[in-house]
Each structure stands twice: as C-alpha cells, then as structure tokens.
C-alpha cells in the first residue's frame, strides 16, 4: 500500500537540514516529502501563526484534501499539533510522530518574556497556548484519538525539562537512545526507530 505524503517540521533555530539523516534512511520510500522552512524569527513568531503557515504550505504542496503523515521535532511538534487541532489538520492526518516536543511546556522557556519572544514563551508550562491546546483536546478528544499518535523522548533532554512533559495526551510513548535533544533525530538508533515507524503501512 502506498504511503500518503510526509511532512517533517523542524524546531526552533533549526532548518530542514536537521532531517538529513532521517531522509537518507528513508531513501525515497516516503516520497512525496515536504520539509518546509518555517520562519520562527529566532522565537519571535507565535506558534499559532506558524501553525497557520504550516497549513498553507501543506495545502499548496498537496492540495486541501490529501491525507498526510506528520513528524514534528521539538517546537515543530507543537506547531504540528496546533495545525491538527486548531486549523483542521485532524481531518487529513493519518499518523503524527511527536519527537522531543514540549507538549505540556518546558522549564527552559519559563523565564522568557512573551513581549520579546512570543514563540518561545508559548512553550512555557501553563502558557495560554498550551492551555488552548489542552482545552481543545478536552472538548474535542476525537481530533487526536482518530490519529495514530506516537511520542518519542529522551531522558537526558536538556531542552524539554522534565522530559515526561514531552508526550502527547493520547497514543504511545517511547524513549529513544539519544544522549541529547538533537540526538533524537541524529543518533543512528533513534533515526532507525523513527524510520521504521514512518515506513509502517
């Protein structure tokens, strides 16, 4: 069975090159592939704005109705979830892989002022953005429940603190053998785990 298009979403201060190891491992077996370069402006851009931009890029690349698989790394996992829940992406998402993403916030963003860096401040524990996603999940649980959701984390992550906050409210959760936040998408064993999940029918 042919796979739907795959969308890979990078995190803060990253570029699409972040996924080079994963793309090499997939070896063309997950084409068509979209890896948009989202303009975070060093953390100034609010995550809801980036989620809307993501939806526009997906529509432009694959049309408004095509089913897609999505993998979001770090901040990219929150952008993907916001697109799924707040911009109708749940209607067309088959599988959602969330990798090292502060789904319930992270202590590393806690002291960042929203007036200066709105995108980073959105990742605070208890931020208005995080609370909005949680409210939508409670009111419309089927949005995520109908998707194959998988969360991946590493215990030594120094960006998502504590690491157990980096798990979606539904689906499976699995630790990866990475020694750092970037290692979640570069360590060979982590890349292999993610590739196998993306190559499943």
Helix share bin:
25-40%
What spatial order of strands do you see in the largest sheet?
2-1-3-4-5-6
How many DSSP helices? 7
Point out poorly predicted stretches. none
CATH superfamily: Alpha/Beta hydrolase fold, catalytic domain
> What is the radius of gyration computed over CA atoms, rounded to a whole number of angstroms?
15 Å
Distance between the amino and carboxyl termini: 7 Å
Order of helices and strands: EHEHEHEHHHEEH
Counting helices, strands and paired strands, the structural category is alpha/beta
- Level-2 CATH architecture: 3-Layer(aba) Sandwich
Question: CATH topology, anyone?
Answer: Rossmann fold
| β-sheet strand percentage | 5-15%
Name of the CATH class: Alpha Beta
Number of strands: 6
Number of domains: 1
User: What would the principal axes of the Cα set say about the shape?
Assistant: globular
Mean pLDDT: 97
Biggest sheet statistics: 6 strands, parallel
Explain how this protein is built.
The protein has helices spanning 20-26, 47-62, 75-86, 118-121, 128-139, 142-145, 188-199; strands at residues 6-9, 33-34, 68-73, 93-99, 148-153, 172-175. It is α/β, with parallel strands linked by helices and 201 residues long. It has a single domain (6-199), classed as Alpha/Beta hydrolase fold, catalytic domain (Rossmann fold), CATH 3.40.50.1820. A 6-stranded parallel beta sheet has the order 2-1-3-4-5-6, sandwiched between helices. The protein is globular, with a radius of gyration of 15 Å. The N and C termini lie close together (7 Å). The mean pLDDT is 97.
């Amino acid at each position: 069975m042919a796979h739907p298009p795959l969308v890979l979403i990078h995190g803060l201060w990253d570029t699409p090159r972040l996924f080079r190891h994963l793309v090499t491992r997939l070896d063309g077996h997950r084409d068509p592939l979209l890896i948009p370069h989202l303009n975070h402006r060093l953390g100034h851009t609010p995550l809801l704005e980036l989620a809307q931009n993501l939806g526009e890029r997906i529509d432009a690349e694959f049309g408004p109705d095509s089913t897609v698989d999505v993998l979001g790394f770090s901040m990219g996992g929150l952008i993907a979830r916001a697109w799924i829940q707040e911009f109708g992406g749940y209607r067309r998402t088959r599988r959602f892989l969330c990798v090292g993403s502060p789904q319930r916030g992270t202590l590393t963003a806690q002291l960042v002022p929203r007036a200066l860096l709105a995108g980073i401040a959105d990742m605070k524990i208890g931020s208005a953005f995080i609370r909005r996603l949680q409210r939508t999940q409670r009111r419309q649980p089927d949005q995520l429940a109908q998707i194959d959701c998988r969360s991946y984390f590493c215990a030594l992550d120094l960006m998502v603190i504590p690491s157990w906050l980096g798990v979606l409210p539904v689906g499976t959760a699995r630790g990866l053998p990475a020694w750092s936040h970037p290692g979640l998408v570069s360590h060979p064993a982590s890349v292999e785990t993610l590739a196998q999940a993306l190559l499943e029918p």
